[in-house]
Amino acid sequence: MFARPMRLLFVTPEVSPHSGTTPTGDACAALAKALKGRGHEVVVLSPLYGFVDAAGRGLARRLRKVEVDLAGEKTAFQVFDGRTAAGVDLLFLGHEEMFSQVREVPTESQDLGDGRRFGAFCKGAIEVLKNDEKGFDVVHCHGWQTALVPVLVDLLELEIGTVQTVYDVAKQGLFDREILAALGLPERLWNIEGLEFHGKVSFLKGGVLESDRVTTVSPTYAKEITRDGAGLEGVFSQRGSELTGIAFGVDVAVWNPTTDAYLEARFDPMDRAGKRRCKVALQSALELPIRDDVALIAVIGEVKARSGLDSLARVVSRLMRNDVQIAIFGEGEGDRKLLEVLEEHAKRWPDRLAIRDDVDSAQVHRALGGADCVLVPPQQAPGGNLQLRAHRYGALPIGLRADGVADTVVDCDAELTTGNGFLFDEASDEHLLGALQRAIGGFAHHGAFEKARERAL
């Protein structure tokens, strides 16, 4: 427990529901709410992207701007205030050139424009820290997009604690050396003990090196990145006990089948009748045959190459030898070629395979409510909590034994007497197909499957 209430600044590229498109946005919102509930004061700072409706979200523009220096050029951010229903204060930095034209949160980039965009945002965060009248005890930085903040705190010798959270070590914010000059950063940062990484500037490396503490998305992932950290394993290893893995939780006020307004019917562990009604509603919406005796497996995630859904596309023909219904819910802008492949499969098996792309939150709620199982795509963000949301809605997750999935899902045995999901050990077509077939076979044993569902709930 903390000795006293603290004042915390979260610096994040996104925050749900305003701009959250990945686990980062969900995690920031949920963690800020939880800390507020424990008596701490939390302010969340994020960019104001062009797709955020400031007026519709109840954001108010401040008269005073935040000004930063980019290599001698003054850049001014508009500042917008807001507050969540839980009482968490929100700050957004808006800029016509840098953020207003952005239609999707950049998650992985080597484009100098993104480097300048988020580097300037980090400098804006420093100005917020320096000019806040109350002062902050800790600044918590989320993702590579904010990882220059601990570097700047160190350069300016500010008296504030720093935490860097790593969501996906493969996404590091790598830019050409000239980004240092573009942001007005000292050339001495260009060295192997600093931000230099194989001929590039790594924002993430800087945050990991300079922050007081480093956290990541699960205990298993914290161990994995010290062995295979996309080239940064040595950097993570040297942090030792200052690197901590914390498994994501679920905001039960948002993901709760007993109160979920998006569902056809509500249900809970003691009364699961509503779950059957949700399945019927989902099958109807997807134009699939209404069948209670077939396993309905939802696949939720980005339809992109190397996301895991490309592997699913390769095994669909063999998977369809089983009695099963598959519902794919694509989040964000998908890979058009992969979508076309999946759509061709759906045309071949229209009564057993359905696809919906660019789905919204309401559709995800309904998918979880109606599904018997949920495939957690094996190559998607390590920081996701899809498996936990599936548990909340009585759907058994199917996932790779890695990252947070390994920390939160217990593999079912052959008789389904133990476990609450179906795990596979390698991110390969054959292992994925095997896990899907295990789930389908398990569903056929209705009584045992319902016991497993009860354990999940």
How would you explain this protein's 3D organization?
With 457 residues, the protein is an alpha/beta fold. It has two domains: 7-245, Glycogen Phosphorylase B (Rossmann fold, 3-Layer(aba) Sandwich), CATH 3.40.50; 273-456, Glycogen Phosphorylase B (Rossmann fold, 3-Layer(aba) Sandwich), CATH 3.40.50. Helix content is 36%, strand content 20%. The protein contains 16 helices and 19 strands. The strands form three sheets. Strands 1, 2, 3, 4, 5, 6, 7, 8, 12 and 13 form a ten-stranded mixed sheet that branches. It has a six-stranded parallel sheet with strand order 16-15-14-17-18-19, sandwiched between helices. Helix 10 (309-319) crosses helix 15 (429-444). The longest helix has 20 residues, at 112-131. The mean pLDDT is 92.
Mean pLDDT: 92
CATH architectural name of the largest domain: 3-Layer(aba) Sandwich
What is the percentage of strand-forming residues? 15-25%
Number of helices: 16
Rg for CA atoms: 23 Å
The geometry reads as globular
How many angstroms separate the termini?
A: 29 Å
Topology-level CATH name of the largest domain: Rossmann fold
Helix content: 25-40%
Task: Write down the domain tally.
Answer: 2
The major sheet is characterized as: 10 strands, mixed
The CATH first-level class of the largest domain comes to Alpha Beta
Assembly category: single chain
Q: What is the CATH homologous superfamily assignment of the largest domain? A: Glycogen Phosphorylase B
The SS-based structural class is: alpha/beta
